[in-house]
């Protein structure tokens, strides 16, 4: 391969990695900051993809209406999960219940849509940088949008009153309650908002890929690798770690073949855990300072 080919692979890996970073940021926010063991995360991401497909291809919603519909459905899904299976603070209960929810969601989607892959059949225009290097226009838009959404969420957490309330509850819920913050309502809001990030990620993934009922398992595993590698609770680190994983996966696929990225990524993940168990972008386990 030529140098131009490698540059093209790296650039496209960066664009895809940005979307990986976005849905991994939502996962690390739930598990690191909010302390929820949500094993239905990948299934919910898959449901967001199918909602995007169904609302645009089968129900004929205009794109703006479909976007609002998917986001509202995700907020509702997050709120219902928080009020039911994630109501308990026991991690064992959360893990077992959310695993059950994951199986239910996968089987419901399989029942209505079958296991046949679905896609939006969008023709992607290529942006020519040079004669040999090009970028996908959809991938570029998704990457920019992922960065803007994550930056907006960061501003929300740091500059608005509800965001500061979330940070206060994360740091010390007892003291936050004595200051007049309704901790339960704040956690409900935070968890529901994290599902908005899942909804945005699901729409991007549906535009860039095809959807299958079992695809959530892969994305959940990928999010776990990215979040632990960056440091649980570090949303910015998860975004950059997602970009790194996207580039590395693209290079391994190009050089060695499509069957090698997953084994090699898992191997590097184990090595990283042995060398730096608290993550690349974290030096301590204080979650509140990194959200």
Element layout with pairings:
Elements: H1 3-33, H2 41-58, H3 63-83, H4 91-113, E1 126-128, E2 134-136, H5 137-159, H6 161-171, H7 173-178, H8 183-208, H9 215-230, H10 235-255, H11 261-275
Antiparallel strand pairs: 1-2
Would you report the number of β strands?
2
Give unreliable regions as ranges: 287-291
Shape: globular
Radius of gyration, Cα only, in angstroms?
Answer: 19 Å
The whole-number mean of residue pLDDT values reads: 88
Task: Outline the structure in words.
This protein is an all-alpha fold. The protein is built from eleven helices and two strands; from the N terminus they run ααααββααααααα. The chain starts with a helix and ends in a 16-residue tail after the last helix. The relative contact order is 0.20.
Quick summary of this structure?
The protein has helices spanning 3-33, 41-58, 63-83, 91-113, 137-159, 161-171, 173-178, 183-208, 215-230, 235-255, 261-275; strands at 126-128, 134-136. 73% of the residues lie in helices and 2% in strands.
List its salient traits.
mainly alpha; globular; 73% helix; 2 strands; 291 residues; disordered C terminus; two-stranded antiparallel sheet
